[in-house]
């Protein structure tokens, strides 16, 4: 299972993913807009402004990133969504638009903030909720252009929509995660003494492409003492017998992310490596078992930490122990709200999706992180990918 193969053999054996999840339908995007309107009313907002980026893609399918020119959606309680866009981008925008929108264009010498102010005035909107991801400068110019409008934080509206995944979103995430787990399995097989971390990173990117994604969205490969640093060190590790291996990587399927970590020993594990690995697996299981509707996010973190403390690790963020939160939300962003961490009192609801990764760090020696993801169901939680059953059965 670990080692014994080659890059060429493993890449040649990968087939493009056959069971592809369907894309997000127009009807679902329209339902998202209606849900945003409901949350606007709850937040006391008369309008919602969402800038270019993942949230604009979520609502409209416009997959443009944030630049210095304002591209944004203004949503009011009634009527079509308004898209504010540079005039020279009209053709490119219309080529990808799937929704019926009111397109407001601005020339290079004009102010898009004035366009936004005009939309607010036409709608009689006195309270504008602004996307927290919008750059401060853009938000400030809109505030100055519409001085009579009160500005609100749109976080409860946007996160309130994005945190609850539909069946279509769950299917896309399930595909991405299962693809990455297969890549992880094959990455373990190409390991050999003397191999460099950078070589494994390159293999994983090629494998992600071969299986049907655009490649790795990120990739962390660590050997030996580097695994004691959650995100590694700025060096290209060389693999040796007895080293702990930590590989954390993911891909995206139609924008929805995977993020899977496996830790194991290359060669024969010593007693301490085995002990810490077993505690890590126990903590991951405890976090999963605690997840169900109504439970607060911070309680999942507490369940994992209780396992560590029972084995003499920690407490809190002390090392040896868990130096960071137990998990994070995931969807269009690899890390998104809510978070499995002390202080996050968000109650779990069906459709919420989280990583489960209560890493254990033994300073100066190694770290172990097992990361799989689950989604909350009506009566508990369900894994997207099955966690390792043991150090000898890493890929169930």
TrEMBL record:
The keyword DNA repair does not apply. It comes from the Bacteria. The keyword Transmembrane helix does not apply. Residues 172-378 form the Peptidase M24 domain. It holds the Pfam family Peptidase_M24. Residues 32-164 form the Creatinase N-terminal domain. PROSITE patterns: PROLINE_PEPTIDASE. Keywords: Hydrolase, Metal-binding, Metalloprotease, Protease. InterPro entries: Creatin/AminoP/Spt16_N, Creatinase/aminopeptidase-like, Creatinase_N, Pept_M24, Peptidase_M24B, Peptidase_M24B_aminopep-P_CS. PANTHER family: AMINOPEPTIDASE, AMINOPEPTIDASE YPDF. Belongs to the peptidase M24B family. This is Xaa-Pro peptidase family protein. It comes from Novosphingobium mangrovi.
């Amino acid at each position: 299972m670990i080692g014994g193969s080659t890059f060429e053999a493993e890449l040649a054996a990968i087939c493009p993913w056959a069971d592809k999840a369907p894309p997000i339908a127009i009807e679902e995007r329209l339902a998202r807009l209606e849900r945003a309107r409901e949350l606007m009313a709850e937040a006391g907002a008369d309008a919602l402004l969402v800038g270019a980026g993942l949230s604009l893609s979520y609502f409209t399918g416009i997959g443009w990133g944030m630049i210095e020119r304002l591209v944004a959606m203004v949503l009011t309680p009634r009527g079509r969504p308004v898209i504010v866009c540079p005039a020279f981008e009209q053709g490119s925008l219309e080529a990808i638009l799937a929704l019926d929108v009111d397109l407001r264009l601005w020339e290079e010498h004009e102010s898009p903030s004035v366009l936004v102010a005009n939309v607010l005035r036409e709608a009689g909107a006195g309270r504008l909720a602004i996307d927290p991801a919008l750059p401060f400068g853009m938000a400030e110019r809109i505030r100055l252009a519409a001085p009579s409008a009160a500005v609100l934080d749109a976080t409860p509206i946007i996160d309130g929509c994005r945190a609850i995944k539909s069946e279509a979103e769950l299917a896309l995430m399930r595909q991405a995660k299962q693809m990455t787990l297969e890549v992880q399995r094959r990455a373990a097989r190409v390991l050999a003494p003397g191999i460099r971390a950078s070589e494994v990173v390159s293999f994983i990117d090629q494998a992600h492409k071969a299986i049907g994604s655009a490649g790795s969205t990120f990739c962390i490969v660590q050997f030996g003492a580097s695994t004691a640093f959650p995100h590694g060190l700025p060096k290209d590790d060389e693999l040796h017998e007895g080293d702990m291996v930590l590989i954390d990587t993911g891909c995206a399927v139609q924008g929805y992310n995977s993020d899977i970590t496996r830790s194991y020993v290359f060669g024969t594990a010593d007693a301490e490596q085995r002990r810490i690995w077993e505690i890590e697996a126990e903590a991951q299981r405890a976090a999963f078992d605690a997840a169900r509707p109504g439970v607060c996010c911070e309680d999942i973190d507490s369940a994992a930490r209780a396992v560590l403390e029972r084995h003499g690790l920690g407490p809190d963020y002390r090392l040896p122990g868990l130096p960071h939160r137990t998990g994070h939300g995931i969807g269009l962003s690899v890390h998104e709200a809510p978070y499995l961490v002390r202080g996050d009192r968000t109650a779990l609801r069906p459709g919420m999706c989280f990583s489960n990764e209560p890493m254990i760090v033994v300073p100066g020696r190694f770290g172990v992180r097992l990361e799989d993801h689950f989604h909350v169901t009506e009566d508990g939680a369900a894994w997207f990918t099955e966690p390792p059953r043991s150090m000898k059965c890493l890929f169930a």
